[in-house]
Amino acid sequence: MNRHVIATDRAPKAIGPYSQAVRAGDTVYLSGQIPLDPATGELIGGDFEAQARRVFENLRAVAAAAGASLDDAVRVTIYLVDLGQFPVVNAVMAEYFMEPYPARVTIGVASLPRGAQVEVDCVLVL
To answer: What percent of the chain has a predicted confidence (pLDDT) above 70?
Structure first.
């Protein structure tokens, strides 16, 4: 199987030993994104909605680097420190995905890297 690493400077650099995305055949696995500013690598300020929007912008940039878009998503996983933010992340996600929506799971977690409140990963099929 051929694996191709996907990388772009339009999304934050990996903060550990992983790739922004890996393409294997027609499937692209996007690593989890937290609300880091691609230019500075720092967690963005603002409210939860702004942070969720940054996460989806980061995912969009990595998808584009793979020659794809979020329209190619078949699975999305959302990690939330506060499940009370579920309605907000739903509203933001609706700005980035259209029907038919990808499959999705949302998981409540105790904490995320760098104190982020949300992380999202995605699987695309081209």
So the answer is: 99
